[in-house]
Amino acid sequence: MSVPAPATASAGHLRRLLALTRKEVLQIARDPSALLIAFVLPLVLLVLYANAVSLDAKEVRIGVVLESDGAAAHELAAAFAATRYFSVTPARDRREVVPSLLAGELRGFVVIPQDFARRLASPSGPLVQVVTDGSQPNTASFVAGYAQGVVSGWLAARGDTAPPVASFEPRYWFNPELESRRFLVPGAIAIIMAMIGTLLTALVVAREWERGTMEAIMSTPASALEILVAKLVPYFVLGLVATFVCALLSIAVFDVPLRGSWLALGTLSAAFLVPALGQGLLISAASRNQFVAAQLALLSGFLPAFLLSGALFEIDSMPAPIRAITLVVAARYFVASLQSVFLAGDVWSQFLPNMLAMLAIGLVFFALASLRTRKTLD
Amino acid sequence: MNTRLRAQIVKELLSFLRDPKSRMVLVGPPLVQLLVFSFAATLEVRNVDIAVLDQDAGRASHELLARIEAASFVRQLVPVHSTTGLADLLNRREVLVAVHVPADFSRNVAAGRPAVAQLLVDGRRANSGQIAAAYLGTIVAGLDGRLETAGTDASSAIAVRHWFNPNLVYQWFIVPGLAAILAMLAALLVTGLSIAREREMGTFDQLLVSPASPLEIVVGKIVPALVIGTVLALLMVAAGVFLFRVPFSGSLPLLLLSLVVFILSVVGVGLMVSSICRTQQQAILGVFAVGVPVILISGFATPVENMPYALQLLAEANPLKHFLVIVQGTFLKALPPGEVFANLWPMAVIAAITLSSAVVIVQGRLQ
Predict the structure, then answer these.
(1) Which residues of B touch A167 (CB under 8 A)?
(2) Residue B280 forms contact with A (CB below 8 Å)
(3) 3 state SS of B169
């Protein structure tokens, strides 16, 4: 085909682009594993994430060792048994509960000592002892905190303590029911998207390199840019569709409200797909081998999205060097925005800087990837 | 050892270790990840920014804000001058909590009347928010000096001791678990790719005509993955002990035995995935489809006992769940042999099931 230049050059571009995109779409459609990861896996993950990952500790199993036989001691033991935060195993001797603590069957125990009545009458030291399983630090501080709550509640009910004069009236905005699912599910969507974008692109492009078909495509009149764009467009669309499926599911099944607009959700997702796909492209250009690409995508895509994005662990609580690393994790900006768009509404003053950050990270990835691709073709 | 089998194993090991990039990604990144993620994965609350709207500016409010600012979990107070300013900072996630002190706060405290300040918490980060709110509640409750005289002080009513980890260092919990997970992912990926790669490259047919028996072929795939996974896990356990200074109080031989059984059970899963898949891409995605749920319901990120009952049952079939108990217990709790075996035999059953299913499936492919 001879193209008599400028007038039809753009038409040629478009045709080549369409043809390449069509090839890519066919390839996806022929191998159902890509669809599996784009649709089935997100569903499974969302279901698991919404149910398995729960920060709402309920009925933590503890032992209550009643060494005293006084009425007050029995009352306090009953107070522990009555709270819904604990599921209590009664005991008379601490030696009964220590093996269970070792085995992880109990997460802590409360000792109501022999001289409880005397301690209550003349308060000088602590009333009861609380031992926790420190090997699970989060549960341990939960046990300590709620044991404290039970004891002070019981003391207040006896009239032994005056309520403090000054207090806070806490109000939880955006999530008054304090359901962890409501902020974990938006985080899960970000993780899924990071996975689809990065892992899938990394694999697909790495496969072309590994099989040597990349060189074949490179030798066609299509420019490197056209090839890459055509490769990414179907995955971009796939990623967007997967986000909408996840969002629908979160709203319909997991009872997460969407207080912002679909437009904002779509714009944010599109902005996030740029760095996610760019990262995949860079990984494949650097590795050119599916095993290496998969391992790199896992380690630099999935795990950071899981652990460094703020989806589960608070970024502010991390040490400064790690906080600095999270600045280049695109998922971080996406998670924060997603939680807002679901729970708070359209906070464009937050979204715009976040989208800029994601696009900037994406541009760097694309620049590095194209640099890497060009260099090796010379 | 049988020479055919040995040749097979050497070939498998070489297929991963020959390529410098493969070698690098097997060992380097997991160690870096261990370093980064173990610092990142914390549910403690630190460096909190708090917006403050002080409409009182009295003695008590100054005292309150000074105490909050001095608290170790607070990074800075951000003063604002209107409720819209508060709302704006909260909306944009600039602050985790906002304190609104009303005009009559100091007067009420001085008069001994209930004085209530508002605490607005970002529910998008409800977990950290709740912890911060609890800290702040203790600070505000300590504001007036009357408490000591009125009976028992509630905050000193209990003496808390955290066994195994007295200062609740989160890394002591994270590092052993992360080591197990990273080793598992590597072993899964190595086996997941093994057969799928041969099929994609067409070399599987050559295996069929080779004199090796199906069992030899399967063992030839299992041993390298076992070696890679175990060595990697041991490297990371060593990093945990020497780099992170996590106390190692249990028995190393028992841990090693459990590790081998754990990796075997994972390898069985990887082989099953691999023999079902036609291409490496499918195998990798398959490994992922298996690996991520396994991590989620292992109790690594959040405790198994918080999960619904059905998932708790499912977790019993998860080798990682059992291995986490062993590895975390061996590090911190000097887990007695009885407890190790209580978690070892479920893994052994899982390993027997996954490995024998893998052998059956691979044999089916070889027919």
Answers:
(1) 114-117, 137, 140-141
(2) yes
(3) coil
